[in-house]
Amino acid sequence: MKSDDRELQSAKKFDSSRADEYETQSRIALAGYEACHELAACMLAATLGPGGNRRILIVGVGGTAQEITAVSRIEPTWRFVGIDPSEPMLARAAQRLEEQGLSDRTELHLGTLDGLSTDATFDAAMMLGVLHHLPGDDAKNAILNDIANRIAPGAPLILACNRYVYAKKPHLLAAWGERWRMHGATSEDVKVKLGKILQGADPPASEDEVFSLLANAGFERPEGFFSSLFWGAWIAWRTAL
Q1: CA dihedral sign, ordered 76, 23, 16, 141
Q2: Distance of CA 224 to CAs 48, 66, 128, 162, Å?
Q3: Environment class of residue 146 by beta-carbon count within 10 Å: exposed (0-12), middle (13-18) or buried (19+)?
Q4: Residue 1's pLDDT band (boundaries 50, 70, 90)?
Q5: pTM for this structure?
Q6: Which of 32, 70, 200, 209 has the most CB atoms around its CB within 10 Å?
C-alpha cells in the first residue's frame, strides 16, 4: 500500500459523524488545545518574524482550522494552503474559515500532499494531530518527506502529535479517561470515547522516535514547546541545502 493510500485509509474514520463532534471532542481529548495552537502560532511568528507575505502549508487542516485561526490573530497578512484527505473534515474547516472571514486568505485542497505541486515552496508548514493516525514508519516518513519537499530550505515545521505506545502508559491512559469523566462522561462513555481515539492510532513510541523521523526526512534541531499527557509539540527546521 502506498503512503498516500495509507493516509486516505486513515481518513475514513473521520466520517461525517466524527467530523460533527470534532469541534468539542478535540478540546476535551487534548487538555490545552487552545494553548497548544496559540503557542504554535507564536513559535512560527518568532521564527519567521512579523509581517510580510508568508505562505504557510497546513497539513491536516480539517475540522477546526485552528492553526489558521491562531496564526491570523497575530499575522493578518499571511496566507495559507490547507490540505486534508477527509471531505467531511475539510467541509467543517471551510465553514469555520468562512465564519471568521479567513476564506480569502486560504486555499483548501481535498486529498494528500502527493496531489500538491512541489513547485509551490512554502515559508513554513504546520502539521498538528496527524502523524499518530498514520500506520507504520513508512507512512510517517513519507508525509514528513512530502512536507520537506514543499517548504524552503531552512524553513520551520511545527509538528504536534501523540507519542508513546498507549498500552505502555496505563497511568496516562487512565488520566485521559478521567479527563472525559471530568467533562460529564460516564464510565461507559469513557470506554467508547477512548475506543474511538485509539482506533487505528499508531503514535511514535517516544520523543526520540519523533526526532528520528524528523531527521530521516531532513529536519534538524527539533525543540519541544508543549506537552499534555500523550501529546507533544515541536518545532524543527528543514536542513538548508
Answers
A1: positive
A2: 17, 20, 13, 13
A3: buried
A4: very low
A5: 0.91
A6: 70
CA-to-CA dists, residue 147 to 34, 124, 219, angstroms: 24, 9, 10
pLDDT at 120 over 50: yes
Band (pLDDT 50/70/90 cuts) for residue 85 is very high
Residue type, 113: L
- DSSP-derived 3-state class of residue 86: coil
Is there a contact between 61 and 131 (Cβ–Cβ < 8 Å)? no
Whether the per-residue pLDDT at 31 is higher than 90: the answer is yes
Domains of the chain: 3-165+202-238 (3.40.50.150)
Among 174, 185, 192, which residue's Cα sits nearest to residue 230?
174
Determine the Cα–Cα distance for residues 211 and 34; give it in Å rounded to an integer: 24
From edge to edge, which strands make up the β-sheet containing 219-228?
106-110, 79-84, 55-59, 124-128, 156-162, 231-238, 219-228
d(CA 158, CA 223): 10
pLDDT tier for residue 151 given thresholds of 50, 70 and 90? very high
Instruction: For 189-228, write each residue's pLDDT tens digit.
Output: 888 888 877 777 899 999 999 999 999 999 999 999 999 9
Sequence-separated (6 or more) residues with CB below 8 Å from residue 104 = none
- 3-class SS at 81? strand
Distance CA 238, CA 230 (A): 25
pLDDT at 111 > cutoff 50: yes
Residue 158 three-state SS:
strand
